[in-house]
Structures are given as C-alpha cells and as structure tokens.
Write a structure and sequence with these properties.
Helices cover about 45% and strands about 15% of the residues. It has helices spanning about 1-15, 50-65, 90-100, 105-110, 125-130, 140-150, 180-185, 195-205, 225-235, 240-250, 275-285, 295-300, 330-370, 395-405, 415-430, 430-435, and strands spanning about 40-45, 80-85, 135, 165-170, 175-180, 210, 215, 260-265, 300-310, 385-390. Strands 1, 2, 4, 5, 7, 8, 9 and 10 form an eight-stranded mixed sheet that branches. The radius of gyration is 22 Å and the shape is globular. The protein has a single domain (about 20-215, about 265-315, about 330-435), classed as Cytosolic phospholipase A2 catalytic domain (3-Layer(aba) Sandwich), CATH 3.40.1090. By secondary structure, the protein is of the alpha/beta class. The chain contains 16 helices and ten strands. The protein starts with a helix and ends with a helix. GO terms for molecular function: hydrolase activity. This is Patatin-like phospholipase. Keywords: Hydrolase, Lipid degradation, Lipid metabolism, Signal. Pfam families: Patatin (PF01734). One of its GO terms (biological process) is lipid catabolic process.
Length: about 450
C-alpha cells in the first residue's frame, strides 16, 4: 500500500506545473499610487505577518486610527500614505487599498468571519503537493482569495486606499521582493496587471504549507540591469541586504552566470516579517524621497513610521529542564524561531538607525527643487521623521496574558477575533506617537 501511495504521489508531482502570474512590461511604466493622503501629517504603517491573529490585530489598529481625529479634524486613517505588509497583514492591506475606509467595516465579514483551512498533509493531494514544494498550490490559494475576497481585482485597482507594498521573499536569491513597480522593473514586468490575489498569495505562501508563487523575468524587453544595481554593488559600504537585492536584479536580467528566468516567491516573513527590508532597498536604490512618493514627501511636515508587530512568539518550556529533557521538536523548532526573531529585530534596528539620515536626505531633496515644484507653502526644511513600534506587549496585562499565545491560523474563533481587535484599539488609544498626531 505504501508503495502504491508513493507511486501515486510521484505521478502527480511529475505532472504538476505552475504558471507565472506576471506579464511583460508594455509601453507605459507606472506604479500603483493609491489615494492622496490628507494634510501634512503622514503615517506609514508596517503590518506584520501572523495569520488571522495579525489580521485581527491590524484591523483593530486601523479602526482605531479611523476613529481618532488628526490635528485637521480628519481621521488619522486618511493620513496614511503607505502600508508595507507581510502575510496576514497583506490580506488586510490589499483589501483596504481596494475598498478604502469602507473596507475597515467590511473586512471582518469578508475574511475574519470565514472558517477556512488549507488541506491537511493526510490527503493524497496534500501529500503530493508536499513533494512539489508545498501542500497547497499557489493557484488554489490565490483563486480562493480572488473569488472570496478580492473579486478579480488587479493591482491597478488598488486606488481607494493608501499605496501598498505587499512583501514576499525570493527564495533563490534570499532577498525581499515586493509587488511594486520598482521590483517589477527587475523582471521587465508590469505590476498593475497582476491579480491582487496572486500578490497576497505570494506574501502569505508559508513554506511547505503552500508552494511558491511563480514569476517570470522578461529580460529581453529591457536593456541591461537597472543602473542602481551597478552603483550599489560598487559601494562596499552599502547595506548587505540591498547589495543582495542588487545581485538578484542582475540575475533577473540575465547579467550573471546564474541568469534567472523564473522567480519563486514565498512568505514575506521568511526574509522580514515586518516588511521593512523592501523599504530599505527602495530608499537606498532610488534615493530620496523613496520609499515615499514625491507627491507625499512634498506635502509632509511630519512623517511617522508606525510598525505594528502582531507576530507569534512560541512559548518555550525547556528553561527549567536539563538538556536530556528537551524534546526533538523543541530542538528543531526553537533555533528556527530564534533565527526569525533575531532577523526581525535586526531589520527593525536597521530601519530605526537609518531614519536620521533619511530625514536629512528628504530636507536636502526638497530644498534642491525649484520653488515652483515644491507644491505647497511649507519651508523645504520643515520636515521630521519618527518611528514607533506597537506590539502585543503594549496591551493591558490581562489582555496580554489571554492573547499573547493566540495561534497564527488562517481562521480564529469569533471571541478571539473580537478580543484582538478590542485590545488593538486600546493600544492605539494609549500610544504616545499617535497622540502626538491628535489635536
């Protein structure tokens, strides 16, 4: 029987194919802009991964910002210029970008209230998928998202809410890959034509559970690698993650021995579960005002990078036991958890450390423009950039004890969803960085 099952699995895996989800670049190169934020106080949100746990917490944060007036009397949610997101955070970010403010009321029923689960490894199809690189195919996940949440939307349709940066991981190059035109330029491809569901599926394609989402490079449509890659690779002081992304872009364009026709994308949390690495790459590659758009950077007086970390930290119980008492599962899983947690903190620290230089670069860029291009009456050097991080540890003690070990499943019980949303609203109400944007 075992031999029959194995043969069946191998037959299915041999026949399986996955089609690239992107198209070549046409005549017009344009990014997905999103709506224009209001006022001169701008917020950039980073929404972590973490399944329905993260999506519930993030929705509570966004609803709290919507219910909080800014200094101009408009909801703080309307001051959001950009959202960078990973996995569970991307499900919400894309929906909000598609529907705008009304989406903050409808996302719960559209996603959180549904009870859906991936196929388990016990089924023959699930086992066959594992041999192909994941138990559940990317088309299966993307089609479910497309039919049930995004209604066939393309990235070009995401104009009702803030600009979004949906993050995945290029598992060949060990580099971030975001669904923005900057990254699609590396593939000579058009981000606007990609289904929103495919972008979100790539962002949440947890290794083994889901097979990678496939992209294709259309290098023949472009002339050589982007100029910034040569500059970054020649700069031995450039950040290593940015240098590695430059190497990836050169691979995409076929300018290296490892010329790369296909790009395999998995969960953005594999590289950075906060979605900050892609912003660092865009900032260092393009220069100011990136990752902000020129439109947003010209109107800003204060910019707050608000990182919302709903990541699950697995409880560890072996600290009171001797080495022989540590189980095999703990020996395998704990080092993987450590690697994820350390890389996340490193990403956070790198972004925080770079903010003073970014603020100076924004001032210099604005002041270098002719007055007729500055767009408003603000002094060109009147801009400040700050950052804060919201985590579960900002909850009230009783809330934290009840919720800190909430699973990162694709669905959660109704009472848990409600508790996460309520706790998030309380965290935002007490946050000093948000309070500074209130009247």
């Amino acid at each position: 029987m075992r031999a029959i099952v194995f043969a069946f699995v191998m037959l299915l895996s041999a026949c399986a194919t996955a089609a690239p989800v992107n198209a070549p670049l046409g005549g017009l190169r344009a990014d997905v802009q999103g709506r224009a934020p209001v006022g001169d106080d701008l917020i950039v949100l980073a929404l972590s991964g973490g399944g329905a746990r993260a999506a519930s917490f993030h929705l509570g944060v966004l609803q709290a910002l919507r219910d909080t007036p800014g200094r101009d009397g408009r909801p703080l949610s309307e001051h959001i210029a950009m959202i960078t997101s990973v996995s569970g955070g991307s499900v919400l970010a894309a929906y909000y970008a598609q529907h705008g403010e009304v989406g903050l009321d409808t996302f719960d029923n559209a996603y959180l209230a549904r009870d859906w689960h991936v196929r388990g490894p016990a089924s023959p199809l699930g086992l066959a998928g594992a041999f192909r690189g994941g138990m559940n195919g990317p088309a299966q996940l993307a089609n479910w998202l497309d039919e049930n949440i995004y209604d066939g939307a393309r990235m070009s349709d995401l104009g009702a809410g803030p600009r979004v940066v949906l993050n995945a991981t290029d598992i060949y190059n060990s580099s971030p890959f975001a669904f923005t035109q900057f990254f699609f330029d590396g593939l000579c491809s058009d981000v606007r034509q990609v289904r929103v569901a495919d972008a979100v599926a790539a962002s949440m394609a947890v290794p083994v559970v889901f097979r990678p989402v496939l992209m294709e490079s259309y290098a023949s449509r472009c002339d050589g690698p982007p100029a910034w890659t040569t500059r970054i690779l020649a700069d031995r002081n450039a950040a290593e993650n940015v240098r590695q992304t430059a190497r990836a872009f050169q691979n995409y364009r076929g300018n290296t021995r490892a010329g790369q026709r296909y790009v395999h994308l998995e969960d953005g949390g594999v590289a950075d579960n906060l979605g900050l690495l892609s912003l660092q790459v865009m900032r260092d590659a393009e220069g100011p005002p990136a990752p902000l758009t020129a439109r947003d950077a010209l109107q800003a007086r204060r910019v707050l990078f608000l990182v919302v970390n709903a990541e699950y930290i697995r409880p560890r119980t072996f600290q009171q036991r001797g080495g022989d008492a540590i189980g095999m599962a703990e020996m395998i899983v704990s080092p993987l958890d450590v690697a994820t947690e350390v890389s996340k903190r490193a990403s956070l620290d790198a972004w925080r450390a770079g903010l003073p230089a970014y603020e100076r670069a924004l001032r210099a860029w604005r002041c270098s423009l002719p007055e007729d291009r500055r767009g408003n009456a603000l002094p060109c050097d009147d801009i400040s950039v700050s950052m804060d991080v919201i985590t579960f540890r900002d909850m009230e003690p009783a809330e934290y004890e009840a919720l800190y070990d909430t699973r990162t499943d694709v669905s959660l019980e109704r009472e848990t969803v409600d508790a996460l949303m309520a706790a998030a609203r309380g965290v935002v109400a007490r946050n000093a960085a948000v309070a500074a944007f209130r009247p």
